[in-house]
Amino acid sequence: MTGDVPHSSTVSRATDRRGDASPFALGLLLRRAHWRAAAAAGEALRPLGIELRHFAVLIVLVDHGPTVQRDLAAATGTDKAAIMRVVDDLERRGLVVRKTVPGDRRVRAVEITPQGVELFDAAHAAAVPQAERLVAELGPGEAEQLTDLLTRFAHPAGGEA
After folding, report:
1. The dihedral formed by the CA atoms of 98, 104, 106 and 111, expressed in degrees to the nearest 10
2. Quick check: 23 and 9 in contact, CB under 8 A?
3. What is the C-alpha separation between 150 and 161, in angstroms, rounded?
């Protein structure tokens, strides 16, 4: 098997260190940046009694309105069983409700409650100091530039991803 893998002493090894020229470097840096951002978000959400997986569902519901669980799973990158557990958690807290979908008794749409909207707004307020700490080492205008670049990267004009 190792005979099929080209090996050269000049081949760059994938790392996430500054200046890495590996073709994997961008993905690895994005993964590390995600870990930092997710940790900061988790710290902001912890006092509110929810986790990032719960907040991800609330984001979809605020953005799209009532959403069936299958679409929530797709929008959050979660499998069907995990999304059911997250919705169960949110429903127990009174942050969402499940409602029947007209025309299909088996399908339930998940809808955010007024209490869920309040928590959603409180989470944004709680996240401000964390977000400021995340970009504290960037220079003037660089946080906005980073946001712009990541937005264009995540949502290409051609509609990919």
Report:
1. -10
2. no
3. 13
CA distances from 68 to 87, 90, 91, 107 (A): 11, 15, 14, 7
Low-confidence ranges of the chain (pLDDT < 70): 1-16, 159-161
Cα 145 to chain centroid, rounded = 20
pTM of this structure = 0.80
* Encoded tokens for 159: 């509609």
Tokens linked to 85: 């557990």
The Cα–Cα gap between 14 and 127 comes to 33
Cα(109)–Cα(97) distance, integer angstroms? 8
What H or E segment, with its residue span, contains residue 29?
A: helix 25-45
Is 71 within 8 Å of 63 (Cβ atoms)? Answer: no
